[in-house]
Amino acid sequence: MNRPIALITGASSPRDMGTAICRKLAAQGLDIFFTYWQAAADWAQTLEQEIAEIGVRCSSYCIDLSAADAAGQVYEEIRRTLGTPTVLINNAAYSTNDNYMTLNAQTLDNHYAVNMRSTFLLCTEFARGLEQSDLAWGRIINMTSGQDLAPMPGELAYAATKGAISAFTRSLSRELAPLHITVNAVNPGPTDSTWMTDDIRSFLLPQFPMGRIGTPDDAARIIAFLASEEAQWITGQIIHSEGGFAR
User: Fold this and answer.
1) Example GO molecular function term (predicted)?
2) For the chain, which has fewer Cβ within 10 Å, the N-terminal or C-terminal residue?
3) What is the assigned CATH class of domain 5-240?
């Protein structure tokens, strides 16, 4: 039996969104290929074993997604180990705090390399590979952070580069629709994963009308739906799955 293969970038700790997405898609019967960076090597081995115990294939790849040839390396490795992916989740991101006083060329380049170049080239590599295969459909899901909903002062480079993903998603969706490849983006809102401290939780909690902060599992659920055959009529959308978060 040939299962769909999902490529997920940025599964680097037990509490991050990439890991939650891997677990959710594996539970739905997809083979999993995920990327991580060096510091997460021990966790990557643990996650591989955990997913393999579900009964699907799993492989991982340590790579610096800021490298200019990263997308090509990722696709060479996934084809070698598992095959041609039918689902791509661009979850990895780069983020630092910067404002008009501190923003400089290096900061912009660091954000661009991961948030834009890596995401865009992974998308196009995915589409070209799927077009050359005998697979009937594909799913691309990019991650945004609500940049079109409200300003993000103090995070200028992050807001600019993640905001560009929305424009790219809409345009690419039109190009790939004839190939039955859907392209959508998800804004999960503030999510209680590796970056959130107790002070941040206390500040954000009153802004969630459901009485809790979003979790990586919340993000994984909407992504799993968009990755399924049931979502074949949804493309070119920026979906704000934030639990009613009030800015």
Assistant:
1) oxidoreductase activity, acting on CH-OH group of donors
2) N
3) alpha beta
